[in-house]
Amino acid sequence: MMHCYLYLSIILFCLGIIGVIARRNVFTVFMSVELMLNAANLAFITFSRVHESMDGHVLAMMVMAVAAAEAALALAVVILLHKHKSKLDTNVFSLLKG
Amino acid sequence: MEQSVNYLGLIPLFPLLGAVLIGLLHVFTCNRTKLPEKVYGILACVGPVLSFVMALKVFVALKGLPPESRFLVHKAFTWFSVGDLHINMGFLADPLSCLMLLFVTFIGSLIHIYSIGYMGGDKNYGKFFAYMNLFLGSMLVLVLGDGPVVMFVGWEGVGLCSYLLISFYSEDRSNVLAGNKAFIVNRVGDLGFVLGMSFLFWAIGAQGFDYLSLKAHVNDPAMTQGVLLTVCLLLFVGATGKSAQIPLYVWLPDAMAGPTPVSALIHAATMVTAGVYMVARFSFLYAEVALAGSIVAWVGILTALLAAIFGMFQEDIKKVLAYSTVSQLGYMFAGVGVAAYSAGIFHVFTHAFFKALLFLGAGSVIYALHHEQNIWKMGGLKNKMPKTYVTMVIGALALAGCPPFSGFFSKDEILYSALATGHFGIWAVGVLVAGMTAYYTFRMIFVVFHGEPRDHHAYEHAQESPAVMTVPLIILAVGALFAGLLNLPAIFGGDQIVSHWLAPSVTEHHPHAGVFVEILAIGASVVAFAIGIKIAYAKFGKGAPEPSFTGFADFAYHKFYVDELYDKVIVQPYKAIGSSIWKVIEPNVTDAPVKGVARLYMVLGTAFKVFQVGYVRVYALYMVLGLSLMSLLLSQSLN
Questions:
Q1: Is the domain of B602 the same as that of B535?
Q2: Which residue, of B129, B245, B428, B502, has the greatest Cβ tally within 10 A?
């Protein structure tokens, strides 16, 4: 039964990766990152359940806190990016091209 | 036996501090409102005068000691210590360095005072005095150093300052080239000095590398005749560079490009006397090998002859004096070469007075004629500039060796020593040169001061120089008159004070050749002087037109084309080697690997550039791939 939760976690994580890599809208990328964080949280909770300890719960709470902080920062960055180029397409921002 | 006194280090320190202070003042004010010239002038004279006072104190202290233990030492600090080589920044005052100290600081001070007038109005007034103080300070380090290494510090210092001062009027390219020439020619000599010093250290330096230890170990088994001769000759190469002897004399006449007080300082008090001083300092080495002494003496007397020939045909008043310096330096080397060290040093001493006098007098003339240096544009100046005229005649008589002026006694002492030690050839050439000296010196005096004015416009505007310039002239004239009496030989009822004073410092044996030889030497010198001055009077006494040179005279006027020869044989090949290295070896040999490495990185960079696409999502992909790879490897190794 536990396997299903882990499979779900993996699927969510992969969806997140694909979202980050394949999508060009900054918001979608950001949401995909959140998705990966939640996939990790799900894995933590599952393992916590398996081992019957509270460690995983603690970490999951911490990840949520970090994710909240990160969301605040990331949204500010998104606003700045939009101010800069009036677009939210990541392909527009390619100053590091070699 | 030796006494340590800490004021010894102050003597070179005063002018050196003065140089730093004046230099900083000049640097911080030269672009803004300038300080009044008086500030620089007074600051510049404080250092040398204080040094002179300290030198007097050293003299008094030495005089209070018994003759055989007249040593004052001061070790300022340990400079460096490597293996066997322990070098202290130490100073030594003995009768020899004390005598040098006295006249270097005295004449140096007078030249500084004179410069206040001569350099008035120059836009680099402060810079000039900073260099002058540095020059004097370096010379004092050279004289006072207690070993060859400390001497070398001063040796290089005077070389640097001569370069800076010769090319002082640096707007004119030829002046800069003259400075370069002085510096480069001196470098050749310096190499000899360094090699000589290294040989000396290799042989006996391990037991201490100051004069007193070296002197004590000069008879060690390591000091074979061959080593001694090598050391002596290499050191002499250094001396030929600094003191302008064959073959390295070429820089000194060109050094006239600098301001006249600089010429006076170079020719009288500092720089050129360093070579003679060094040979006298190492007299304990030269006394051991007769051959080295003979070579020194012959090089010296041949230089004297060559320079006297050149001097007879020059038309620039300062060049005449420059060649006379080279010639007199030749005498000094002849003196120290025949082991008459005190006679050689005594000639340095008297020469300092009359040569400083002649140069400052020439400077006074040049100043009055608005920087005209060609003697064929002068004439009849004796009524316009009586003080300069009288003092310069005194200087000329001393230079020409007229009794009882100072130059007579010192020159005669050298010639007598040459004759008494059996160096007849040197004596004969010396007497000939004495006559030539009288001739070219009075040729200059007659042409400049007697006869009719040749350039009436310049003559009308000429006037006597200010007191700040004439007073040093008068003081020096007194010195040129009476300095010779300090070493009056026994035949004139004197007791050779200077020779006895120097006796503890130098290794020499006074020859006793009898009264007849002494009278012969004196007689020959006087006759040579009389003939020289008579010819000069006959040719130029009543005023003479500018001669046109033909044949030998033309050859001598062009200095035997030695400069051109050096240019063809040494300078041009060097330039050719330099440019071939620059054009062939550098691009193909040394540059190839350097540029190759750069090109390699460029190619690698271009190859890796394609991965840097600039999109965040691609970088995320790299990250995912990398992390996956790492996880894969980790899981592999765990299994």
A1: no
A2: B245
Q: Tell me whether A93 touches chain B (CB under 8 Å).
A: yes
Q: Kindly state the tokens that stand for B500.
A: 């006895």
* Widest Cα–Cα separation across chain A: 51
Give ipTM to 2 decimals: 0.86
Q: With beta carbons under 8 A apart, name residues in chain B contacting A91.
A: 615
What single-letter amino acid sits at B243? Answer: S
What residues of B are in the A interface, CB distance below 8 Å? Answer: 608-618, 620-621, 624
CA distance A10 to chain B (A): 13
Residues 6+ apart with CB under 8 A from B179: B162, B163, B164, B166, B167, B257, B258
Which pLDDT value is given to residue B1?
Answer: 47
Of B505, B528, B551, the residue at which a domain comes to its end is B551
Chain B residues within an 8 Å CB radius of A23:
617
Does the model's pTM come out above 0.90?
no
- A37-93 pLDDT per residue, tens: 999 999 999 999 999 999 999 999 999 999 999 999 999 999 998 898 888 888 888
Residue B559 lies in a domain: no
Phi first, then psi, for residue B379 (nearest 5°) are: 125, 140
As given in the structure block, the two tokens for residue B497 are 């004070």
Q: Which domains, from first to last, does chain A contain?
A: 2-87 (1.10.287.3510)
Per residue in B402-449, pLDDT (tens digit) is: 888 888 888 888 888 888 888 889 999 999 999 999 999 999 998 888
> Is residue B556 assigned to a domain?
no
To test the contact with chain A by mutation, choose from B604, B608, B616 the residue with the greatest count of A C-beta atoms within 10 A, namely: B616
From chain B, pick out residues whose CB is under 8 angstroms from the CB of A94: 613-615
Please state, in angstroms and as integers, the Cα–Cα distance from residue B67 to each residue in B346, B501, B505, following that order: 18, 8, 10
Cβ atoms of residues B274 and B158 within 8 Å? yes
